[in-house]
Amino acid sequence: MGGKIRKPPSTQSPRHPAGKPGNWETGGLVTCFLGLGSNLGDRRENIRLVLQHLKKNKQIKIQKLSSIIETEPILPKGAKPQGKFLNAVVKIKTGLLPQDLLTALKEIEKKMGRKAAPRFSPRVIDLDILLYGDKQIEEENLKIPHPQIQERKFVKKLLGEISYKLQATSYKLQVASRKA
Questions:
Q1: pTM of the entire structure?
Q2: Quick one: pLDDT at residue 78?
């Protein structure tokens, strides 16, 4: 058999958009912010379990967690009422590409019992990629920055808690270090 010998996919290092290897040895990591939310079951335990699942992924390193706050669900008119959410934001470093990070988050949601349901349904856990470095991504299943950051004041508040603030311009969100 001729051809190029390739490592099995499981042993190849993922690459992030800057083109640097996304692994711990080379430091090719991207800073990301994830939104965590739960309004079913033991909401605080659900948040704790998500953090445990994130820690198990060798391509994700948790940097900082915001406080956990209770918020009213943001629902369209006519939607069925539901319980309040517990929400938090977590800062991570990852070597995963955006779509791979999204896949990892969806797998965690599934492991925790989230089922396919109509939009705005109650959720055991809801995981969103809020920011992925300074990237802007417009794909069918992934929009970064998260399109509802501006509408969710609690998200901006929690982002600010973990040493970053959002500065909105007409078309772009920028993340800037907060001066101490």
A1: 0.78
A2: 83
Q: Which residues of 27-64 are buried (b: 16+ CB within 10 A; e: fewer)?
A: ebbbebbbbbbbbbeebeebbebbeebbeebebbeeee
Rounded to whole angstroms, the Cα distance separating 138 from 165 reads 22
Domain architecture of the chain: domains with CATH: 29-175 (3.30.70.560)
- Residue 65's nearest CA partner among 25, 29, 92, 104 is 92
The distance between the two most distant Cα atoms of the chain, rounded to a whole number of Å, is 63
Q: What pLDDT is attached to residue 20?
A: 45
pLDDT in tens, 91-131: 999 999 999 999 999 999 999 988 887 777 878 999 999 99
Q: How many CB atoms lie within 10 A of CB 125?
A: 24
Q: Are 130 and 145 in contact (CB under 8 A)?
A: yes
Crossing angle of helices 43-56 and 98-111, in 10° steps, is 130
